[in-house]
Fold DUF3188 domain-containing protein.
Amino acid sequence: MIRNGLFLCSIGFLIVLYSLNPSSLNYDLLSLTTGIFFIGLGGYLFFKGKKVAEEEATKDEVKR
């Protein structure tokens, strides 16, 4: 899940980067919204996967 989240974040950042029209300096609102959605979804998946990985690491840990 961590890799998938980072991948979606990078795709979202690229979409946001290319949502600006260089000739008229106007943003394409649909591309900008899609990019922000991918960034948010990727961040959610990243932190969810990180939390699951930490729980698995502590579950396998030997308690003293």
